[in-house]
Inverse folding.
């Protein structure tokens, strides 16, 4: 929005159109959606009101707020960070630059974890590694209020976000501790479920990521080492020492990593190793049961 452009009378619909065109010229995916979401959030309305109230002039304070948000999105800051929240499994999670933005793909990890432990849902003890915003642990906890879940992350900053989300969303059956995978203090010696959405981007591929991800989301939560499987290998190797007989390990992995991950589980002694596709039909979650 240029200095001369600010002298004109801006309506909701004209601002949305201008932002859409601006985002499109900068190569931003889904420019219209981003423009509508940003405008609706800044004005405290839903997207339907953008159409209904499209002719309403914007006030100076509203324009100033929108100018700042558009400027940040131009720089490719994720919309979720602009809003400070992201919906996951029907709940709104607080997110900022300390944590990854929860993806719909990760809902598959939740679905697999719950499906494979349905027979133990009343007394489940679970561990969520690399918890980030806490979206996986908190979702399982809210879907199954009788289970006990412990969530860990190597980043104290990420855990601060996860704790805030647990409090906001009433997930009182989730506890937290900081540590590198299983080095974190866990309250139970044996578990019926371990979930993880670890870093799985190969180091060499990091610079090829979209700038929205590469320049804003924490590299610690993305970089999975030379082949992207460094943490996956560690989790598979160490998980059996913490699983009860029949306990389930469920891992989210990157596109093209399913076969290698399934082979790791099978070689370690997991049975019933299964690969599950996400909403985009990508092989996203590999899981298996431990036979003690």
């Amino acid at each position: 929005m240029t200095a001369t452009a600010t002298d004109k009378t801006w309506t909701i619909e004209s601002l949305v159109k201008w932002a859409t065109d601006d985002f499109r010229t900068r190569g931003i995916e889904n420019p219209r959606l981003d423009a509508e979401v940003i405008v609706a959030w800044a004005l405290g309305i839903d997207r339907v009101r953008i159409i209904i109230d499209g002719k309403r002039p914007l006030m100076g304070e509203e324009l100033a707020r929108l100018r700042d948000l558009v400027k940040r999105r131009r720089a490719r800051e994720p919309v979720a960070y602009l809003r400070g929240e992201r919906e996951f499994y029907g709940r709104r999670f607080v997110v900022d630059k300390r944590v990854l933005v929860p993806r719909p793909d990760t809902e598959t990890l939740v679905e697999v974890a719950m499906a494979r432990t349905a027979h133990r849902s009343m007394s489940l003890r679970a561990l969520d590694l690399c918890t980030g915003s806490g979206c996986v642990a908190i979702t399982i906890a809210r879907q199954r209020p009788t289970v006990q879940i412990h969530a860990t992350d190597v980043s104290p900053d990420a855990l601060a976000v996860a704790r805030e989300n647990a409090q906001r969303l009433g997930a009182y059956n989730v506890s937290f501790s900081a540590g590198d995978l299983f080095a974190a203090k866990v309250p139970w010696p044996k578990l019926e479920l371990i979930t993880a959405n670890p870093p799985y981007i190969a180091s060499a591929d990091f610079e090829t990521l979209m700038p929205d991800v590469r320049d804003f989301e924490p590299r610690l939560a993305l970089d999975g080492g030379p082949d992207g499987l460094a943490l996956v290998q560690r989790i598979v190797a160490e998980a059996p020492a913490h699983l009860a007989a029949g306990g389930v390990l469920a891992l989210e992995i990157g596109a093209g990593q399913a076969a290698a991950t399934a082979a790791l589980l099978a070689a370690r002694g997991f049975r019933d190793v299964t690969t599950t596709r996400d909403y985009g039909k990508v092989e996203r979650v590999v899981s298996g049961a431990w036979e003690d």
In short: Residues 156 and 178 are 6 Å apart (CA to CA).
